[in-house]
Amino acid sequence: MEALGLYNYWLVIALMMTGFYIVITSPNLVKKIIGLNIFQASVFILYISMGKVAGGSAPILADQVTLYSNPLPHVLILTAIVVGVATTAMGLSLVVRIYAAYGSMEEDDIEVMDRSETDG
Amino acid sequence: MMLLTAHLPILQVILPLIAAPLCVLLRGPRLAWGLSVLASWGCFAIAIALLRQVLAEGSVSYALGGWAAPWGIEYRVDVVNAFVLLIVSGISSVVLSGARAGIEAEVAKDRIELLYTCWLLCLAGFLGIAVTGDTFNVFVFLEISAISSYALIALSGRRRALIASFRYLIMGTVGATFIVIGVGLLYMVTGTLNMADIGARLPAVAESRTVAAAFAFLTVGIGLKMALFPLHLWLPNAYTYAPAPVTAFFAGTATKVAVYLLLRFTFTIFGADYAFATVAMEWILLPLAVLGIFSASLVAIFQLDVKRLLAWSSIAQIGYMVLGISLVSVTGLTASTLHLFNHALIKSALFMTMACVFYRIGSTQLADFAGLGRRMPWTMAAFVVGGLSLIGIPLTVGFVSKWYLILALLERGWWPLSVFVVLSSLLAVMYVWRVVEMAYLQPATSNAKPCEAPASILIPTWALVLANLYFGIDSSLTVGIAQRAAESLLGVSS
C-alpha cells in the first residue's frame, strides 16, 4: 500500500487537475482566476509535503530536538504565495476593468463583442 | 571603483529595481521618463562592463549577501548570460529613449509615470532571470517581469488590450507555475536549488522518473513563456494591443529571455547528454520549430494589422532559434544565440517604426498604410531595411543568422531542412512585401499630407536600423561572442 502512503501527492495531483480544468474550461474570467489559485495551491502543498521529514519537529534549536523538517521548501512557498497573491490581484483588477469596458466577464460574450467591432 | 566592479552582477538588477518606485514618487511623466532612461542606460553600461570582464577573465560568480554558493543565492555570469544581459538592457535603453512621444500619445496622462515604473520592474525582472544562478530565483524574477508586463500591456487604454493582458496572465501564470513544479521536483531529487550544483548532482539520479517529470514541466513552462509553437496563443494579441513602444521592448527582450532559460535549463542543468541522448528532446523541438516557422509565417501573410503581422512573424522567428538548439552542435547553438541578438535588433526596429506610424496615423491597419511611403519617407525606409533584415538579405543581420543556421543544418547533413529555411524566407518576403506594396505603390487617400514622425522617435529607430546593417556587415564581434557562448553551453573548449 505504498501508493496510498503518498496521499499528499495524490491530493496535489487532484487539486492540480481540478484547478487546471477550471482554468481551461470556465468561460467566466473570475472563475478562471479561482482555478488558477487552486492550481497554485496544489504546488504549495507539493513543496510543503516534500519538506516534511517523518517524525521531525519544527526547525527550532533546542536540546531535546534532533530531527527537523526541512524549512527551505516552506520558505520558498512563502515567496510563491506572495507571488500568487500579486498575480491574483493583477488578474482581478484586470477583470474589473474588463467588466467596466465590456459590461460582461464571460469570455464568449466578450469574443462576440470583439468580433462585431470593425477596428482591429 | 574596485568596490563597484565586484558588485556589477547585483547592481544590474538593483538599479532598475530602485529607480522603479522613484518614478512613482517623481510625479511627472517627463521626469519619470528621464529617470528610467538613465537607469536603463546605466544597466546597459554595466552589461557592457560585465561582458568585457567575462570575455577577458571567464565567468563571474557573485554570492548574494555574502552567503556562499550552494546555500546562498549565487549570481553567475558567463558568456551566455552576459550576452543576454547586453541584448536586454541595450534594447530597453534604445527603445525607451524613443518611447516618450509614443507613450504620451497612447497612455492616459495620469498613468504615464506608472508605465515607466512597470517598464523598469519588467527590465529588472528580465535582467534578474538572466543573471541569477539559482533556479527558484529564476521563478521570482520571472513573475516580477510577468506581472509588470501584464500591466504594461493593459495600460494602452484599448479595451482589447485588457483581454489580451488577461489571457497572457492566465497562460503566463500557468507557465510560471509549471516552472516552479519543475524546480520543486529537481529539489526533491538533488536537495539543491543552485544551477551548477543541480547540474553536478543530476547524472547520479538521471534514471529517476522524478527527473523526467521535472524536465517535462520545465520545458513546457518555458515553452509557454517563449511562445514556442503551439504554446504561442497569448502572443499575437498581447503584441498587437500593447502600446507600440512597449511592443518594441517586448519583441526584443521577453521571448529572448525565455529562450535563454531554455538554453540554461537544457544545457547547464540537465546537460546535453540527458536532454538529447536520454530524452531525445530534439525530436520534440525540431518538428515544433519547423511547424512553427511554417504555420506562423503563413498566418502572418494574411494579417490585416501590421503589428499583428509582425507578432506572428516573431513566433516564426522563435522557431529558427529553437531549430538551432535542436541541432545540439556548436554551430547550431551559435546560430541560435546569434539570432537572439539579431532578431532583437530586427523586431525592435520594426516595432519602433510601428510606434512612428501609430503616433502619426493613430492606427497600424494595413489599409491605412496606403501612400505612407511618401508621407513618412524616413519611417517607411526604416521599415524596408528592417524588413529586408527579417527576410535575410545579405548585408543585414538576418542574413548572418540564417547563414549560420544553414551551415549548422548542412553540418548535420540535413539539407532538406536547409532548403526549408531558404523557402520559409520566401514567406517572409511575402508578408513584408504586402506592407511595402501598400506603402509605396498604393495611392494615398485624398488630402493626405506628409507627416513624418518626430525626430525623438526616428533617431532611436534608425539607431536600431543602422545596428542591423552594421552587425550584418561586420559580424565578427557578435559571431565571436555567440560561438563562445555555444561552446560554454556544450562544455567544449575551443
Give an account of the 3D structure.
The complex is a heterodimer of chains A (120) and B (494). With 120 residues, chain A is mostly helical. Chain A contains 5 helices and no strands. Chain A has one domain: Orthogonal Bundle (Helix Hairpins). Chain A has helices at 2-5, 7-25, 29-51, 71-102, 107-116. Chain B is mainly α and 494 residues long. Chain B has a domain at 280-494. Helices cover 78% and strands 2% of the residues of chain B. In chain B, strands 1-2 form a two-stranded antiparallel ribbon. Classes of the chains: A mainly alpha (120), B mainly alpha (494). The A-B interface holds A 20, 23, 29, 32, 36, 39-40, 43, 46-47, 50, 73, 76, 79-80, 83, 86-87, 90-91, 94-95, 97-98, 101-102, 110, 114, 119-120 and B 136, 139-140, 143, 147, 150-151, 154, 159-160, 162-163, 165-166, 169-170, 173-174, 176-177, 180-181, 184, 187-188, 240, 304-305, 308, 363, 365.
Specify the structural class of chain B. mainly alpha
Radius of gyration of chain A: 20 Å
Q: Helix content range of the residues of chain B, please?
A: over 70%
Percent range for β-strand residues of chain B: under 5%
Question: In percent, how much strand structure appears in the residues of chain A?
Answer: under 5%
Percent of residues in helices of chain A comes to over 70%
Largest interface: A-B, 30 and 31 residues
Largest sheet of chain A: none
